[in-house]
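When time allows, look over one protein, given below as sequence and tokens. The question is which stretches look regular and which look disordered:
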Amino acid sequence: MDVFEKLVKDGGPIGQHMDRAHGYFAFPKLEGELGPRMKFRGKDMIVWSLNNYLGLVNHPQVRAIDTKAAEMYGMGNPMGARMMSGNTEKHDELERVLSKYTNREDAMLLNFGYQGIMSCIDALVNRRDVIVYDAESHACIVDGIRLHMGQTYAFKHNDIADCEKQLVRAQKIAEKNGGGILVITEGVFGMDGEQGILKEIVELKKKFEIRILIDDAHGFGYMGPTGAGADEAQGVQDGIDLYFSTFVKSMGSIGAFIAGPKNVLKYLRYNVRSQIFAKSLPLLIVEGMLTRMQMVLSMPELREKLWHNVNRLQSGLKERGFDIGHTNSPVTPIYMKGDVPEATQMVMDLRENYHIFCSIVVYPVIPKGDIIYRLIPTAAHSDEDIDLTLKAFEETKKKLDAGLYKADDIPDMAG
């Protein structure tokens, strides 16, 4: 068989509707300045799909430093991998800022979040070690675990009893192989908005010899008293061994970092393959991140505005009878019932008639008959944005419940 034949046969589980969905439901093009108000296909939209938690993407100070840094350094500086010729004092300075902010001994910059955590997981464990992880961990964690040549066990999402059950199994294998156990979970889960059960997992250190790695991409910058992350919010920074996050969410930039004990970070610097064999993080990004960190440290009003908007949106949805699950973060899922054609009709109504743009998740990502809308409130949204959105969802839900979105098939919106 031609290796390409199976690829183009049906498009895969997500791509099966791509001929009709491309450009509208999938790969849509939002235009204009990044923020809560943008254009989609020429129409003004209130946008709830950007992980711009602190509203930094288009903040004047951020735009100014990014422009200045681009003029100073361009995209190519420094050249080469950091180990060979791409290290600078600015890179070291940012790592010092990040380690202090997250209350760790050391930190290491990574070029990308997805690639970074995959490579960190690969470097941290060998075939004798066992990984125990939350079953709903992000795809980057799952793909990192796929690189592991030893045993792995998944525990039910945020289920501490099942986590302990899997640790009992892992302990037997680790003792037999002469290896250790790495537990991996998330600080804030990006789909359902729930914080990971960090406090409960840390307590298991009293029973098991484990190390804990968390991916806090959705919690860094705003969770906790200083915004240092979900582990700060839960008071367990000392119990989380390795803290990973990205600059893509709250910081509105590119790149990532991992923080933890100095001796472990020293090892990672010389063994994380995606950094050893890749160009260093560009200086314009590093310079921009130093300014962003100064802002986060000195401007608590950014976090305060974010949480004001989160509370206004989520309380408004609950007051109107919407099911938003157990979110305890800005990530706001709205759970509804309906088939895929109904969901697409509702999305079109929200966009075309109410000018509301948000992400939607349907089968095959979740079970048939379920619909999840995912809204991301940010510090840049206004009370008016929230109130108009609440009204739109209230009215479209009535239409959904009345069967007004019934359709036999997904409409062709490609183009």
About this structure: DSSP finds 16 helices and 14 strands in the chain.
